[in-house]
TrEMBL record:
Keywords assigned by UniProt, alphabetized: ATP-binding, Ligase, Nucleotide-binding, Purine biosynthesis
GO cellular component: cytoplasm
The family this protein is said to belong to: Belongs to the SAICAR synthetase family.
The keyword Protease appears for this protein: no
Entry EC no(s): 6.3.2.6
Name of the featured protein: Phosphoribosylaminoimidazole-succinocarboxamide synthase
UniProt xrefs under HAMAP family: SAICAR_synth
Reaction(s) this enzyme catalyzes, per UniProt: 5-amino-1-(5-phospho-D-ribosyl)imidazole-4-carboxylate + L-aspartate + ATP = (2S)-2-[5-amino-1-(5-phospho-beta-D-ribosyl)imidazole-4-carboxamido]succinate + ADP + phosphate + 2 H(+)
UniProt pathway annotation: Purine metabolism; IMP biosynthesis via de novo pathway; 5-amino-1-(5-phospho-D-ribosyl)imidazole-4-carboxamide from 5-amino-1-(5-phospho-D-ribosyl)imidazole-4-carboxylate: step 1/2
ATP-binding recorded as keyword: yes
Uppermost EC category: ligase
GO molecular function: ATP binding; phosphoribosylaminoimidazolesuccinocarboxamide synthase activity
Organism of derivation: Desulfosoma caldarium
Length: 299
């Protein structure tokens, strides 16, 4: 029997550090507990209706990619086996199982690291107006969803809760975090994208773009938060990809399209999602997991 979706955690004996759009983070003194709920957001707004098993799918995908990238960049993961977590977590083992990560504390960088390999979404709108994406000039005549001549790195601010991220130039990022660290972040972000995109394509999936987050531990750059999930990336089925049209996707673009179609304004309260939208969104997330990892949902 499928467990009810988890919208929010409630662990009275643990210290809640923050609730993000999707994750609840608990402070375990010298480490953190990250719990992926089944909440889903679109246009920076958390929907009122959760997507069953979404948090478990995101966690399993992140674990797959952390392992895949272990020789590329260090990450914050300590363990995912609830039995190995600190004793304070034991009363909540059933809820935590499959959807939580025990991780090292890091000093998060105040930027989000975005790499785009295809012309779509806000990048397409920017290109239509300016011929550029986030200030990076591109060749004339590119079409919607076309592959870029080479992937581009387009950082953004990491917003405070309730605010919107804003695109910034590489130079602005370097001003905020320093030239040496900025170059390292840019280079490792592009390397991660190129390795992951090549692997995904071997599984019939185009990785159109992705967003990564990094932090520092004892001065070392490490990958934190989630990595290469449908919440932070655009995944397209390669066999149905067509230049000039918005591709089908294995991510929450389906939900965004639904919200646009019903005329919802992000300034309004989030609507309840009909069950067909919930089901179809879950199906897309699950297919991404199955294609990329070769495994189904491990509940």
């Amino acid at each position: 029997m499928q467990a009810p979706p988890l919208f929010a955690t409630h662990f009275p004996s643990l210290k809640l550090k923050s609730r993000g759009k999707v994750r609840d983070i608990y402070d375990l003194d010298d480490s953190l507990l990250i719990v992926a709920t089944d909440r889903i957001s679109a246009f920076d707004v958390v929907m009122r209706t959760p997507i069953p098993d979404k948090g478990t799918i995101l966690t399993q995908l992140s674990l797959f990619w952390f392992d895949f990238l272990r020789d590329t960049v260090e990450n914050h993961l300590i363990d995912t086996n609830v039995a190995a977590f600190p004793a304070s977590c034991a009363p909540y083992a059933e809820t935590l199982s499959g959807r939580s990560m025990w991780v090292r504390k890091a000093k998060p960088l105040p930027v989000e690291c975005i790499v785009r390999g295809y012309l779509v979404g806000s990048g397409w709108k920017d290109y239509q107006k300016t011929g550029s994406v986030c200030g990076i000039a591109l060749p004339k005549g590119l079409r919607l969803a076309e592959r870029l001549p080479e992937p581009i790195f387009t950082p953004s601010t990491k917003s405070e809760r309730g605010a919107h991220d804003e695109n910034i130039s590489y130079e602005e990022m370097a001003h905020r975090i320093g030239n040496e660290l900025a170059a390292r972040v840019r280079d490792v972000t592009l390397t991660i994208y190129e390795k992951a995109a090549a692997y995904a394509l071997s599984k019939g999936i185009i990785l159109a773009d992705t967003k990564l987050e990094f932090g520092l531990v004892d001065g070392r750059l490490i990958l934190i938060d989630e990595v290469l999930t449908p919440d932070s990336s655009r995944f397209w089925p390669a066999d149905r990809y067509r230049i000039g049209s918005n591709p089908e996707s294995f991510d929450k673009q389906y939900l965004r399209d639904y919200l646009v179609d019903i005329g919802w304004n992000p300034e309004q309260p989030a609507p309840e999602l009909p069950q067909v939208v919930v089901h179809n969104t879950r199906t897309r997330y699950l297919e991404a997991l199955e294609r990329l990892t070769g495994r189904g949902l491990n509940l």
